[in-house]
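Protocol step 4 of 5: obtain the predicted structure for the target chain.
Materials: sequence only (see below). No template structures provided, no constraints applied. The aim of this step is simply to have a reference model before the mutagenesis design in step 5. Sequence pasted as it appears in the construct record:
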Amino acid sequence: MVWMSLGVPGKISLALMRAFEEAAADGGLLVSIISVWEIALLVSRGKVALPLSVSDWVQLALSRPELRLGGLTRPSLVLDSVNLPGEFHGDPADRFLVATARAHRARLATHDRKILEYAGAGHVQILAV
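Step 4 output (structure tokens):
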């Protein structure tokens, strides 16, 4: 989401950009509020540098018509994050992301090894990045 919103070349594979374009044409890309939180956290810890403030970046990213914000708007989604099927690790942010993707029947774009392994067991659809 960071690199796509900023238009940074080379940070997103061509295959992933095509998948994003297809998803946008099919009704849009869902961005979890947890992703926004994780990026803000990474910036605050100095692990990600943005050319603008996090607040301005969020406004820029979410102004794109193909992006829509989703996330922890229903109690059932929060409860689902606690009751995911199969074995999954305890990171709350990852659990919220997986529960959100499952609730929306969306493919989760990730390179996180633990989520990829969980997807391999058939519990969530992913786009490996």
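Step 4 remarks: The CA atoms of residues 46 and 91 lie 21 Å apart. Residues 12-128 form a domain with the Rossmann fold fold (CATH 3.40.50.1010).
Proceed to step 5.
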